[in-house]
Each structure stands twice: as C-alpha cells, then as structure tokens.
Amino acid sequence: MKITQTPSDTTLTLVLDGELDASSSVLLDTELSNPTVLQYQKVLIDCQRLNYISSAGLGVFISHLQRFQDAGVKLVFFNMQEKVHNVFEILGLDSLMTIVPSQTEAAAL
Question: Does domain 2-108 have CATH number 3.30.750.24?
Fold first, then answer.
C-alpha cells in the first residue's frame, strides 16, 4: 500500500492506495503516530483507491481515534468504496467515525 500526504494550513489529507492489511497497517500506524499530525484541525482519509481493509487496518484507526478526539482533530473518511464501507458498517464503525461521500463534504466539516 502507498500513503500520500497532502498538507494544507489546517488539514492533512492522506491518500490510501492499495490494500490495508497486517503488513501495511504498520506503515499507516507510523503515519498517524507522528506528533505533527495533531497540529492539524482535520485529517482527511481519501479511500478512493483503498481496495481492501483488514481488521489490523481498522485497528489502527480505532487505536488513534481517542488520541485525535482528545487533541480536537477531526478524522474524516471520504471517497470510500462500497465494499470497504460495508466493513465499517458491519462492525458499527460508521457510527464512531465520520464517513462522507466526497472530499468537498469532508473539507466542509
């Protein structure tokens, strides 16, 4: 999996490209653990090219959720493929995390 960062003044966008599984979740955890991430008001996760997410990948987001909330950083997912979105729904994570259809909607939050 490839992760591309696009920072702006108040927002950091992470583009996930490929499969988020046990091995690539380490890379994502490293990205989200970086203290500079908490300097942004929003972290937007572009899931358009995310083809698969495993429990390890979901665990990375869950493990950072409280840290982001405590720091006042909004974590927003967008452009999620239906099969990935279904995983979030089945596990009830769509009620814990903000998921919107487009980058425009994510940026407006």
Answer: yes
Return the structure tokens found at 7. 């920072």
Chain CA centroid to CA 81, Å: 13
Alpha-helix residue ranges (DSSP H) falling in 1-109? 22-33, 55-71, 82-90, 103-108
At residue 42, the pLDDT reads: 97
Reported as a pLDDT band with limits 50, 70 and 90, residue 68 is: very high
pTM: 0.94
Percent of the chain with pLDDT over 90: 100
Nearest residue to 3 via CA among 21, 24, 34, 33: 24
Q: Find the angle CA(108)-CA(64)-CA(12) to the nearest 5 degrees.
A: 35
Domain ranges in the chain are 2-108
